[in-house]
Structure to design on (429 residues):
């Protein structure tokens, strides 16, 4: 018994001695974890040096369209992901003209020799909206140049053709010359200040149809959310072709019911690029990996679906017209793009945490198409993404939820206004 007691006493004394000297290898990590709690930093990289992708809304001056190169060069791992707005805008305009040419015998509903259209403008200060308005007016010959660019301001009401921001165009179809007139256009902004508002567009077509009746031969919208609202409210029942943009599932399906067409901005490619650029920066590999150059899983994009502008540090997905001829190929807008659908090895690409926001949780394209695609890709790329939905009105509704950026390894930002990049980068300084 005495020997057992002496042995136990010696063991206790040795344990106390080791603790006092810091001899326990587990003690320090336990203390560190206790101090950090749930808000412990995920990496030792300074927030200002972490990968950052701007997406959907390119940092730029909303009045002039000039790119915000300070924001695009925030750090060496900063990029923008969007789509080729000008190419898509021209494609939408061409799609409308093609429809008119194919349906010349019935397009002029009241037979007055004038093809009248109304235009739903999303956001007068958004580069994509500006480009789409210009694209339609250019194709239909109704645009007026100002300072070397086609005017993109709304016309208000223009039934007599006297508006100063547009002109009457002409189209020769089947040996007949039609006058083309923008009867009315407006920014679809609701009373709370949110733009691209579908409900506002639905109300607008009600007003326009009551005022113009069968003068309206075509309805054009800067996006499908507004386009479908007008289609369901009026133009479907009146068999007036409506053209949108985004290739949302409901718009694609509606082509079978008379929706004129839409533009796919390859959201599947955009969503992939948004996360792939972050993944590459986090892994410290060439930014082209899995994009223009195949990765170890075989993921690669062909050069007919995207372009990269090195000077602008921007990746742009290319657009495709979706019409009655091909709409069945676009019925599922949330399906990942097959050439980049292979799972990355988690050992080689360990899980990283990403903060990502959607500027407006109610936006149809972003909520029903873009975010589901992102959620499909984040798993494939081993990214733990926290999705933040904004109100579409203020940056603070989003930035207030980035209280501790040190929790994250990378950031993907979709701004409310293109001018406001500093609202986010100031939090990362």
């Amino acid at each position: 018994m005495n020997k057992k007691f002496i042995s136990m006493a010696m063991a206790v004394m040795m344990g106390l001695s080791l603790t006092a000297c810091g001899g326990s290898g587990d003690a320090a990590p336990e203390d560190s974890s206790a101090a950090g709690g749930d808000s412990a930093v995920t990496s030792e990289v300074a927030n200002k040096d972490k990968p950052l992708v701007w997406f959907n809304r390119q940092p730029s001056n909303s009045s002039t369209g000039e790119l915000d190169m300070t924001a695009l060069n925030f750090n060496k791992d900063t990029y923008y992901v969007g789509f080729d707005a000008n190419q898509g805008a021209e494609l939408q305009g061409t799609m409308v003209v093609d429809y008119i040419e194919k349906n010349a015998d019935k397009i002029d509903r009241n037979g007055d020799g004038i093809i009248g259209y109304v235009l739903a403008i999303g956001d007068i200060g958004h580069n994509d909206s500006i480009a789409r308005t210009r694209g339609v007016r250019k194709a239909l010959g109704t645009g007026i140049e100002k300072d070397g660019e086609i005017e993109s301001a709304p016309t208000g009401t223009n039934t007599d053709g006297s508006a100063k921001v547009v002109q009457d165009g002409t189209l020769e179809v089947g040996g007949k010359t039609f006058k083309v007139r923008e009867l009315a256009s407006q920014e679809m902004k609701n009373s709370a200040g949110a733009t691209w508002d579908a409900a506002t567009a639905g109300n607008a077509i009600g007003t326009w149809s009551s005022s113009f009746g069968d003068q309206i031969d075509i309805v054009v919208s800067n996006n499908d959310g507004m386009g479908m609202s007008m289609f369901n409210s009026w133009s479907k029942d009146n068999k007036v072709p409506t053209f949108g943009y985004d290739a949302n599932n409901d718009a694609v399906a509606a082509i079978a019911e008379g929706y004129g067409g839409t533009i796919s901005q390859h959201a599947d490619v955009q969503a992939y690029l948004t996360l792939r650029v972050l993944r590459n920066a986090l892994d410290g590999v060439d930014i082209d990996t899995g994009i223009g150059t195949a990765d170890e899983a075989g993921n690669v994009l062909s050069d007919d679906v995207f372009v990269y502008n090195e000077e602008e540090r921007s990746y742009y997905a290319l657009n495709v017209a979706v019409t009655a001829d091909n709409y069945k190929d676009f019925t599922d807008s949330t399906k990942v793009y097959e050439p980049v659908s292979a799972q990355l090895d988690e050992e080689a690409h360990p899980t990283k945490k990403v903060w990502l926001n959607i500027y407006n949780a109610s936006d149809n394209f972003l909520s029903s198409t873009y975010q589901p695609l992102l959620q499909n890709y984040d798993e494939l790329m081993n990214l733990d993404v926290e999705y933040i939905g904004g109100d579409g009105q203020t940056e603070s509704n989003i930035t207030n939820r980035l209280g501790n950026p040190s929790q994250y390894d990378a950031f993907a930002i979709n701004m409310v206004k293109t001018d406001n990049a500093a609202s986010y980068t100031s939090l990362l300084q």
Remarks:
- Residues 58 and 190 are 23 Å apart (CA to CA).
- The radius of gyration is 27 Å.
- The chain has a mean pLDDT of 90.
